[in-house]
Amino acid sequence: MERQAVGQELAPLLIELVDLALTAKQAHWNVSGMWFRQLHTQLDVLADDLRLWSDDVAERLTTIGVAADARVETVAARTPFASFPSGSIDSTKVASLIVERLEKVVENNQTRIAKLGVVDLVTQELVIGITGGLQKQEWMFAAEQPGRPA
Amino acid sequence: MERQAVGQELAPLLIELVDLALTAKQAHWNVSGMWFRQLHTQLDVLADDLRLWSDDVAERLTTIGVAADARVETVAARTPFASFPSGSIDSTKVASLIVERLEKVVENNQTRIAKLGVVDLVTQELVIGITGGLQKQEWMFAAEQPGRPA
Amino acid sequence: MERQAVGQELAPLLIELVDLALTAKQAHWNVSGMWFRQLHTQLDVLADDLRLWSDDVAERLTTIGVAADARVETVAARTPFASFPSGSIDSTKVASLIVERLEKVVENNQTRIAKLGVVDLVTQELVIGITGGLQKQEWMFAAEQPGRPA
Amino acid sequence: MERQAVGQELAPLLIELVDLALTAKQAHWNVSGMWFRQLHTQLDVLADDLRLWSDDVAERLTTIGVAADARVETVAARTPFASFPSGSIDSTKVASLIVERLEKVVENNQTRIAKLGVVDLVTQELVIGITGGLQKQEWMFAAEQPGRPA
Amino acid sequence: MERQAVGQELAPLLIELVDLALTAKQAHWNVSGMWFRQLHTQLDVLADDLRLWSDDVAERLTTIGVAADARVETVAARTPFASFPSGSIDSTKVASLIVERLEKVVENNQTRIAKLGVVDLVTQELVIGITGGLQKQEWMFAAEQPGRPA
Amino acid sequence: MERQAVGQELAPLLIELVDLALTAKQAHWNVSGMWFRQLHTQLDVLADDLRLWSDDVAERLTTIGVAADARVETVAARTPFASFPSGSIDSTKVASLIVERLEKVVENNQTRIAKLGVVDLVTQELVIGITGGLQKQEWMFAAEQPGRPA
Amino acid sequence: MERQAVGQELAPLLIELVDLALTAKQAHWNVSGMWFRQLHTQLDVLADDLRLWSDDVAERLTTIGVAADARVETVAARTPFASFPSGSIDSTKVASLIVERLEKVVENNQTRIAKLGVVDLVTQELVIGITGGLQKQEWMFAAEQPGRPA
Amino acid sequence: MERQAVGQELAPLLIELVDLALTAKQAHWNVSGMWFRQLHTQLDVLADDLRLWSDDVAERLTTIGVAADARVETVAARTPFASFPSGSIDSTKVASLIVERLEKVVENNQTRIAKLGVVDLVTQELVIGITGGLQKQEWMFAAEQPGRPA
Amino acid sequence: MERQAVGQELAPLLIELVDLALTAKQAHWNVSGMWFRQLHTQLDVLADDLRLWSDDVAERLTTIGVAADARVETVAARTPFASFPSGSIDSTKVASLIVERLEKVVENNQTRIAKLGVVDLVTQELVIGITGGLQKQEWMFAAEQPGRPA
Amino acid sequence: MERQAVGQELAPLLIELVDLALTAKQAHWNVSGMWFRQLHTQLDVLADDLRLWSDDVAERLTTIGVAADARVETVAARTPFASFPSGSIDSTKVASLIVERLEKVVENNQTRIAKLGVVDLVTQELVIGITGGLQKQEWMFAAEQPGRPA
Amino acid sequence: MERQAVGQELAPLLIELVDLALTAKQAHWNVSGMWFRQLHTQLDVLADDLRLWSDDVAERLTTIGVAADARVETVAARTPFASFPSGSIDSTKVASLIVERLEKVVENNQTRIAKLGVVDLVTQELVIGITGGLQKQEWMFAAEQPGRPA
Amino acid sequence: MERQAVGQELAPLLIELVDLALTAKQAHWNVSGMWFRQLHTQLDVLADDLRLWSDDVAERLTTIGVAADARVETVAARTPFASFPSGSIDSTKVASLIVERLEKVVENNQTRIAKLGVVDLVTQELVIGITGGLQKQEWMFAAEQPGRPA
C-alpha cells in the first residue's frame, strides 16, 4: 500500500463530507414552506450518514498513518463547494442545492475509486461503499425536484 | 421577547459549539499514546454532546425567528478559538487543549445567561442547561491533566 | 367447516394480496415528484401489511387442507387487476392508482365475508380483520388525492 | 410558596393544554389533501406532547395542594379558544389553525412565567420548559403555512 | 355498508370514550387515601386503553366517510355521563364511580353490536373488541369496591 | 460563581439525600402489613430517585471544585434527621415518616434556591429540579396517610 | 451420582411446584376486594416463578435419566396440598392460603437438600436456589397477612 | 348476555386448555429421538400459547361473573382427554398424540362458537380467535406425522 | 458509468430475486413431512433475504436512472425458472428444488459481476454481496439433501 | 434453620456492604489524575454491585425474620473500616484503598461461609455468590496497583 | 483457600472447555445431512456456553492468583480428547461425538467438585454450576442419538 | 471459481484468526498494571471481532466445498505465530505483542487479496473486509505503544 497515494484521495473526500454534513444541518434548520417536515427529516438522515462516512474516512486515514485534518479552517479553505445560501430556504429549492453537491462528490469519487484500485483495495472498498450511499441519497433528493420529468 | 437581543447571544454560542464539535472529532482521530483508548472514547462522548447542544441552539434561533448560520465559512470566520494543532497529539496533552476551550465557552455563557435573564427566560434556561453540561465535561477532562494537584 | 367452500373464498384473496404487494413495491421504487418521500414511505408500510396478510391467508388455506398457490405464474394468470403503469410515476398520480385497487379487494371481501359467515367463522374473522386494515389504508391514500373535496 | 397564586396560573394552563390536545386529535383524524400524511403524523406528535405537559401541570397542581380540574364540562366552559372547525380540513389550512392556538398559550405563558417568578420557582421552571416546547411546535407548523415568506 | 347507519353507532361511542378518558385522568390526579398508588396506576392504564380505543373509533369513522367529532364542546354537549365529582376523591370511592360509567358504555355497546351486525361486520368486530376490553376493566375496578361480596 | 457560597448550599443537601436514600431502603426492607407490596415498590422508586439526585449534587460539587463528602461518618454526624425507627414498620405508618423527612429537605431547599439565585444559576437550576421531584414524591406518600382528609 | 436417590427427591418437588403454579393462577383469577390489584399482580409473578422452577426441576430429572411426570392425573393424585377453596376469595384471605403452601414446600426442601448433599451436589444447588426463591415469596405474602404483628 | 349459558361453554374449555398445557410440557420434557430439538422447541411454543389462552378464558369467566376453576383436582376430574403416555416418547410419535388432542378441542369449539353466537358475541369472538390458533398449531404438528401423504 | 449496460445486468437479477422470493414463500406454506418445522423456518429466512436483496437491486436501478420493473406480469414473462410444483411438497424434496434455483442465479451473477467490473464498481459490489449471500443459502439447503455424500 | 445464628452472620455483612457502597461512590466523585476516567467508571460498577448485594442480604435477613438495619447511624457505629480519606484522591492511589477493604470483607466471609454451612445452606449459597463477586472486583482493582509485580 | 490446590482443578478444566468450544465450532461448520439445520444451530449454542464457561474459569484462576493458560499450544498439548474427525460429518453421527466429550468433562468435574469442597467453596460453586450446564447440554445431544431407546 | 485456489488462501487465514482469538483471550485474562482496565476491555472487543471473522471464513470454506479445519491440533501445528508469553503481562507490553501479530495477518492478506482477485471476487471481498477491520484494530493498539512518536 502506498500511503501517500491513498492519503491524497481520502484527505479531500474528508473535507467534502464534513462540509456537506454542516450544509445538511444548515438546511435542516432553515428550510421552510409546505414540504418543511419532509425535508427537515430527510436532511437529518443525510447529515447522520455524512457524519458516519466522514468518521470512517478519517479513521482510515489515521489507520494508514496519515493524519486526518477536518478542523474548521482546513475545511473552509479546501472545500470545493460554493457558499450555501444563508437564511431561510424555500422547501421547493432545497433539493437541487443538495443534489448538485452530492453529484460533485460522486463524480470526484469515480476518479478516486479508479486510483485507489491501483494502490489499496481496502480503501477502495470503503470509497465504493460511500459512493453507493451518496448516489442513493442523490436519487431521493433528485426525485423531489419540482418540474422533474416523471 | 426581544428577538434581536436573544439572537445576539445565541448566534456566537452556535459558532463555538460547532467549532468545538469539529475539534473534538479532530482530537478523537489523532490522539495517540498510552491513554489513547480512554481519550478516544471520551472525546466521542464530548462530540455527541456538543452536536446535540448545537442542534438545540440552532433550532431555538429558528424558533425565535433568527436564521441559524453554522456554515463552514461562517464558523471559520467567527470562531473565537485559536487553531487546534494539526497531526498526531500525545494523549497527555489532549486534556488541557480541551479544557481551555470549554472554559472559554463557559465564561462567555456567564454573560449570556445574565443578558438573557432580562429578555427571554426560555432561552436562558436552554443556555443554563448547556453550561451545566459543559462544566461537567470540563471537570472530567481537567481531572486528567498531568501534574494536576490532587 | 366445508373445506372447498372456504378455499374458494381464500384462494383468490391470496392472489389479490400478493399482486398488490408487488404493485406497492413497484410504486415504492418508481414514484417521483414533490411528494416522493411521503409516498415512498407510505407504500412500504402498505407492502408490509399486504405481505403479512397474504401470509395469514396462505397459512389459513394450508391449515384447512387446501394448498396455497401464489406462484408467479398463478398470480399473473388469475389477478383481477389491470397492469400497473411501468416506469416513473408522478407523486400526484400514485394515490388514485392504489385506491382503486384497494377498493376492489374490499368490495370482493364484502361478498367473501357474507359467504364465509355460513361455512367457517374462524376464516370469516380473518377476512374481516384484513378488510378493516385494507379500508384504513384506502382512506389514507384517498386523503391524498389531488382535487379531493375537503 | 403561595398556593393560591400558583394555582391561579396553572389551572387555566391545564384547560388550554387539554383543549389543544383534543384539537390536535380532531385535526389528526380529519385532515385531508396532498399533505395529509405529513400533517397526520405531525399532529399526533403534537397531541402526545400536549398530553404529557397537561399531566405534568395537573400533577403539579395536586402536589401544591390545589385540585386539578380538567373534566370535560370545565374545559368546555373555560377554554379561551374558539371552536375548531368541524368536518374535513384541507391540509393547506391546518397549520394556521394550529399556530394561532399555540401562539395564544405561549403569550399567556409569558405573563404566567413572570408571576410565578415571584411565588414559586419550581412551578416557574415547569412552565418555562413547556413554553419552550410549545414554541418549537409553533415554529414547525408555522414553517408549513402556504404563502409564508421564505 | 350503509355509511350513515354505521356513523350513528360510532359517533356517540367516540363521545363516551373521550369523556371517560378525561374522567380517568381526572381521577388519576385527584385520588387520595390508603389505596392511592394502586388506583393512581390503574386509572392511568384505563386512560391509555380509552385513548387507543377512541383513536380506533375516530379513524373508523373517517375511513367510512363520516367526520369524527370529539371537540371539547361536542363532547361536553353530548356526553351521557353526569358530572364526575370535583376535587380530591377518597380511594375507597373511586371504583364505583368508574364501574358505573364503564357499565353504561358496555350496555350501550350491546345495542350497537346488534345494529352493526346488520350493516357492517368490520365495524361490528371493532366494537366487540372494545366491549371485551371495557368489560375486563370493569371487572378489575368492580373487584375493588368495598363491601363487595366475595 | 462564588465557589464557597455554592458549596455551602450543596454540601448539606448531599448529606440529606444520602441519608434519605438509606432510610428509603431501610423502610423498603422492613415495611409490613396489608399495604406491604404497594409501599415496598414505592420506597424502591424513591430510593432510586434519591440516589440519582445525590449523584448529581456530588458531581456538581466536584465540578465547581469543592470535594464532595458523603462518607458514612460524615453523613451520620451531619444529618439533620432524627433516627428512623428500627425493626418492622407497619404499612400504615410508613407514609408519615417519609413525608416529614421529604418536607424538611423541600423546606431547606427553598432557602438554598434563594441563595443560589444570587451566586450560580446553573446550580440553582439543579436544586430547583430536585425540589420539584421531592415535592412530587412527597405528594404521593402524603396521599397515602391514614385519616388524611379527602 | 445415584440416579434413583436424586429422582426420589425431585419427583415430588415437581408435583408440588406444578400444583402451586395452578393454585397461584386460580387465586390470580378469583381474588376480590380492596387489595385486588396488588394481589392479582403478585400472584402472577409467583406463578411465573413457579413455572420456571418446575421447568428446571423437570429438565434436571430428564437430564439425570429419570422421566419427569407432571401430567394432571399424577399431580392430582400425589400432591400433598389440600384443596384450594373454589370461587371468589377475599383479598384479605389470600396471603395465609399461599403462605401455608409455600411453607410446606420449603420445609420439605430442607430434608431434600440434606439428602441431595450426599448424592448429587449439582441437584442440591438447584434445590437450594429454588428454596431461597420460595422463602422470598413466602416473606412477601406473609408480610401482607392481616393482624400480623409488626 | 346470559351468564350461565356463557359459563357453560367456557368452563370446560378452560379445563381442556389447562390440561393440554400440562401435556405439552410433559412432552417437551420427555421427547427423545432424532427430531428431539425441533419438537422440544415446538412444544414449548404450544405450551406458551395454551397458557395465554387459558388465562384469557379464565379472566373472561371472572369478568362475566362466573368463578373460574382450574384447580388440579377439577382439571383431573373433568378433562375429556385420556392419559398421556408416561416416560420417554419417541420424537416420531409426538405429533399424532398432540394432533388428536388439539383436534378434539377444535371440534368442541365448533359447537361452543355456535352456542355463543346466540348469547354473547364478545365471548364468541374470544373462542373464535383461540380456535384459529389451535387449528394453526394442529396443522404444524400434523405436517410432521410420519407417513403423512404429501 | 454506462447506465444501459448496468441496467441490462440488474433488471434480470431483479426478476430472478422476486420470483425466488415468491417460490420460497410457496414452499414455506406447502412443505410437509418429518422435517417440516426446520424447513418452514429456513424458507422464511430465505424469503426475507431475497426480499431485502430485491429491494436493494430495484433501488439501485432507480438510482442509476433505469426504471425497475417487478410487476407480476413482467416477472412471470421473464423469469428463467421453470414452474415450482404446486400443492404439498415432501420435506425431503424441498432442498434440491431450492438449490437448483439458487445455483442458477449464482451462475448468472458470475457473468454479471464480470461485466459490471468494466462499467460500474458500485453496482458490482452490490452484486458481489448478494452472490455471497445466495451461496451461503445454497450451502445450507444443499447440506440437507438426502443421499448427499458426507 | 437457626434464625439467630444466621442473623449474626448476615447483619455485619450488610453493614460492610453498605459502607463500601458509600465509599465506592465517594471515590467515584473524588478521584483525579491521568487514570481518572478508567477509575471513575470502574468505581461506579463496583458501587452498583455492592448495592445489589446489600439488597439481597437485607431481604434475606427479613425473609428469615431478623430485621435488617442499615440506617446511617448503625452503619457508622458498626462498620469495621477506618475512615476513607476525604477530598481529592490521586488516581494512582485508589486501587490499594479499595483492595484492602474488599480483602477484609472476603476474609470475614470465609468464616461466615463456614458457620452458615452448619445452619442454613440457602444463606450460605448467597454469601458464597457475593464472595465470588467481591474477589473478582478485588482482582480487577489489584491489577491496577502501581508497582505490582507482573 | 489453598491457591495451588484450586489451580490444579481449574487449569485442566480450562483446557477441556476451550478445546470443546473449538470442537463445537468445527462440527458447526462441517455437519451435513438431513438434520443439518437443527445441529448447526444447537452446536452454536453449545459453543457459546463453552466460551462463557471458559471465560469464568480463566478469570477465577487469575482472581485466585494463578495465571490462566489457554494458548493454542498448551491446549493442544494437554487436552484429554482424541482428535475430532476432520471434514464433513453426517448429521446422524454428530450427537455421539459430542456426548462422549461432554460426558468426560462431567466425569472429571465430579472429582474436582469433591476436591474443591475441601479447599474453596466459591470455586466449587462455579464448577457445580458449569457441571449442571454441561449435563443439560449432554442430555439434549444424547436425546438425538439414532437408535436411542425411548 | 476455482475451489482449490480459493481454499488455499482461506484455510491458513482461518488458522491465523483462530489462534489470534485465543491469544486475545489469553492477554485479556493475564494483563496487569496501571492500564489494566483499558486493555482488558479492548482485548475482549478484539477477540469478539476475530471470532466473527473466523466464523465467516470457515463458513465461506464450507460454502465453496472445502472442509474448514480449526481443530486445536491443526491450529497448533500450522499457526505461523511464535508462542505468546505465558503468565502475567504488564499492561505497557501488551500493545506491541498484539500489533506484531495483527501486522503479520494484514501482510499475508495483501497477497491473498491479490490471488483471490483472479479466482473469486466474492471471497476477495470477504478478505478485503476482514483486512480493513484488522488494520483498524492494529491502529488502536499501535496508538498505545509506549515511546511511540506522536
Automatic annotation (TrEMBL), chains A, B, C, D, E, F, G, H, I, J, K, L:
Domain Ferritin/DPS: 17-143
Gene3D superfamilies: 1.20.1260.10
SUPFAM superfamilies per record: Ferritin-like
Taxonomic superkingdom: Bacteria
GO molecular function, one term: oxidoreductase activity, acting on metal ions
Pfam families named in the record: Ferritin (PF00210)
Family: Belongs to the Dps family.
Name of the protein: DNA starvation/stationary phase protection protein
Organism: Kribbella jiaozuonensis
